[in-house]
Amino acid sequence: MAKDDKAKRLSELLRVPEGDIDLSSVDAAATPQAPGGKSVTREDWANQAPVLADLQERLFANGRSGDRRSLLFVLQGLDSSGKGGTVKHVVGQVDPQGVSITAFKAPTPEERRRGFLWRIRRALPAAGMLGVFDRSHYEDVVTVRVRKLAPRSVWSRRYEAIERFEQELASDGMTIVKCFLHISRAEFVERQLARIEDSTKHWKYNARDLEVYGLWDDYLEAYSEALARTNPDHAPWYVIPADRKWYRNWAVTKLLIERLDQMGLEWPKATFDVEAEKARVKALK
Known about the structure:
Blueprint: H1 3-7, H2 10-14, H3 38-64, E1 70-77, H4 83-89, E2 99-103, H5 109-114, H6 118-122, E3 130-134, H7 143-146, H8 152-155, H9 158-171, E4 174-182, H10 185-197, H11 211-214, H12 216-229, E5 237-241, H13 245-262, H14 274-282
Parallel strand pairs: 1-3, 1-4, 2-3, 4-5
């Protein structure tokens, strides 16, 4: 890693650069800014968990006290990239009462009639909440494109709709963190084999997921364009090298800590006379 990279925040290092990006050239097994190998990084990750939990609790407490701010964490990636694992191992480190999680599947007939952002709006996090999207509105410009579910004239117009939508959210006090979990073809195969060979993971295996392998280049091309075209400062994209699960968990944890820290979250001030209430409680003894 270059000296300049060591001086950067991880969020700066993983941020999709301005202009075009070619995901096929990004090393999915890289470990930028990891404090060491697997064991060292996992130990550091465990030390970061209380920091993330504290910041998330501050966000929740402020929401309960009238602060409108929230955080939307968008997870995208190809099948087997680890979206569910990230939710379990990273988001699972914080108080669940301050978290809302939505896993978007293929839209229902009713949702299709309503427009592609209708169901997204209904799932947005309330004030003080950490909202997690396992897949999102980006399926409507990536999967729809790759699977040819709509013509270019339809999905290409959605980029501008997404930009306006996310600008609206940011203006209303929502911090938006969008992560693309990037795995290699070889890792995809290994994870599919792991699901087949382990009887406790058979429920995760879906033979249709193998279709992704044949469409790999198409997906990376579609994601590359989507990330490049929807990457403003108020709703940035981050590419997380995700071949190594231990690095993925560490990096996403660090990234969320950085973004929450940038919100300048303080504990809400008491709305009551502290000394008077202390005296009242002591009088109960």
